[in-house]
């Protein structure tokens, strides 16, 4: 509709259908489908719809004039035949297929008056259906979509080929294009769907929109969160006279983050390095192996603190001896009392050369009460394959404890962490240490600016930075992240990095 032919709009109103709308609605249907007896909804049929599901029946008014409508019912999707027809769904005036215990909204009619087409009123009606589906916690929306231009090419191509050509813009089908542009996807072809639909050759396409916010009903209570509060510790390297003194500082930070009701506390890589000062008279390989003796008691204390302060603690990393070999490891101490171990997969040339550090081999996604998380230690975030595998396994938040001595070393970690957030559509939290340790060989200076990074789209900060600390200053950082925003991004983002992977050209898989 051109701008000069568009009616002047003073008011648009979306309201529930009532029987008072019958005559106006009848006129709209006759205008479009003619005055055959079955061309419009009868009053008893409308009464049946209103009686069983009033929220599913809406009309849209322009300046008080009925401009369109959308009707729907709730069905038990598992009980629908794969080859059902329109009459199977809406063929009786009592709408016996409707059930309040169903799991899917079934669209049975949408129509827009000719003079109001081009005003995107159909999109408003579809948006209402989507919002209703979310409010009712239904799995999604389905309907049989007509393919009104199919008759033009039905002698040349199948309905399946027709859909593909519409998708690739070789054929223009305004109805199917509209549905695809509103995030509906074809599920299957329905033959003999609508009796008398000559334009579609009585075919329809079962279209489906998935409610990404749907939560399966369960009798087991759950406290899974969608709003997650992340706490980062930007740790000051300083001398400690004993393990108890270091643990006192750890508890101080845990208590502080817990006081702000944080869900996670992330410590940096090798935050316990100050305990090596008493072994400075030993060689560097010997000193770090002495430090490894503190790992078990620190892990046990952090597990106690996670329960006492009701916070999930990510222990950064610490050296650990396994079968007389040195590894860089950390522990996820969850507030339910369980612990999980993670390893540094890639060791830096200095770690291997100076300490004899061994490469780890285990990395995975951890299920927590705040979603699925991954943990990669420092250098590991510079290898995009690891985080991509974790993202494919459902990771929502990636935690990266790090230790860097120079600004360019820190920049490698920061820039790669930001890239991981964008390409994997997840949050990435990094935490490092600051200050210096003049009495600890190979750990004398530190540089850090801890931060929480986000994907880059309209629902997130334009620079992809949720929050960040002051560089080289001891402090904590607290940031809230929304896991539901990630679900929205995965399905409706400006770009879809995970969905658009070309698995037909390349693959990324774990080795057993």
UniProtKB/TrEMBL annotation:
Protein origin, superkingdom: Bacteria
Coiled coil: none
PROSITE patterns membership: CN_HYDROLASE (PS50263), GNAT (PS51186), UPF0012 (PS01227)
GO molecular function: acyltransferase activity, transferring groups other than amino-acyl groups
Membrane-spanning ranges: none
Span of domain CN hydrolase: 228-483
InterPro entries registered for this protein in UniProt: Acyl_CoA_acyltransferase, C-N_Hydrolase, C-N_Hydrolase_sf, GNAT_dom, UPF0012_CS
Positions of the N-acetyltransferase domain: 12-195
Family matches, as PANTHER family: HYDROLASE YHCX, NITRILASE-RELATED
Family under the similarity heading: Belongs to the carbon-nitrogen hydrolase superfamily. NIT1/NIT2 family.
Entry protein name: Nitrilase_Rim1_like family protein
């Amino acid at each position: 509709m051109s701008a000069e032919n568009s009616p002047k709009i003073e008011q648009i109103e979306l309201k529930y259908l009532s029987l008072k709308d019958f005559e106006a609605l009848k006129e709209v249907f006759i205008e479009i489908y003619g005055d055959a007896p079955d061309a419009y909804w009868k009053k008893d049929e409308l009464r049946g719809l209103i009686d069983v599901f009033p929220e599913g029946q809406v009309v849209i008014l322009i300046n008080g004039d009925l401009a369109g409508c959308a009707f729907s019912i709730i069905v038990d999707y598992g009980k629908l035949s794969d080859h059902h027809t329109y009459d199977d769904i809406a063929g009786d005036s009592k709408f016996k297929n409707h059930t309040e215990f169903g799991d899917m909204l079934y669209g049975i009619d949408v129509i827009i008056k000719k003079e109001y087409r081009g005003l995107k009123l159909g999109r408003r009606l579809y948006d209402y259906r989507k919002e209703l589906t979310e409010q009712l916690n239904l799995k999604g929306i389905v309907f049989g979509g007509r393919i009104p231009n199919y008759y033009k090419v039905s002698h040349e191509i199948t309905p399946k080929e027709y859909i593909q050509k519409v998708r690739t813009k070789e054929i223009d089908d305004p109805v199917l294009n509209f549905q695809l542009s509103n995030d509906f996807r074809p599920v299957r072809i329905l033959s003999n769907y609508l009796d008398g639909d000559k334009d579609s050759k009585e075919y329809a396409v079962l279209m489906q929109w998935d409610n990404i916010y749907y939560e399966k009903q369960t009798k087991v209570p759950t406290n899974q969160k969608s709003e997650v509060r992340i706490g980062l510790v930007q740790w000051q390297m300083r001398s400690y006279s004993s393990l108890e003194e270091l643990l006192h500082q750890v508890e101080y930070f845990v208590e502080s983050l817990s006081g702000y009701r944080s869900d996670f506390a992330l410590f940096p890589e090798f935050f316990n390095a100050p305990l090596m000062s008493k072994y400075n008279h030993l060689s560097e390989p010997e000193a770090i192996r002495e430090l490894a003796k503190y790992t078990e008691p620190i892990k046990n204390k952090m597990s106690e603190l996670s329960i006492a302060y009701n916070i999930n603690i990510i222990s950064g990393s610490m050296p650990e001896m396994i079968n007389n070999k040195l590894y860089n490891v950390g522990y996820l101490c969850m507030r339910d009392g369980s612990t999980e171990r993670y390893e540094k997969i890639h060791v830096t040339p200095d770690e291997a050369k100076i300490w004899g550090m061994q490469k780890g081999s285990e990395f995975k996604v951890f299920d927590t009460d705040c979603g699925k998380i991954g943990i990669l230690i420092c250098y590991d975030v510079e290898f995009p394959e690891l985080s991509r595998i974790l993202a494919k396994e459902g990771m929502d938040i990636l935690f990266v404890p790090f230790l860097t001595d120079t600004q360019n070393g820190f920049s490698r970690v920061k820039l790669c962490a930001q890239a991981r957030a964008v390409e994997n559509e997840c949050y990435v939290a990094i935490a490092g240490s600051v200050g210096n340790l003049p009495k600890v060989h190979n750990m004398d200076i530190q540089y850090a600016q801890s931060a929480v990074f986000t994907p880059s789209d309209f629902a997130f900060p334009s620079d992809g930075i949720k929050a960040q600390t002051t560089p080289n200053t001891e402090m904590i950082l607290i940031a809230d992240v929304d896991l539901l925003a990630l679900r929205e991004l995965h399905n409706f983002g400006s770009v879809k990095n995970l969905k658009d992977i070309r698995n037909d050209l390349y693959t990324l898989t774990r080795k057993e």
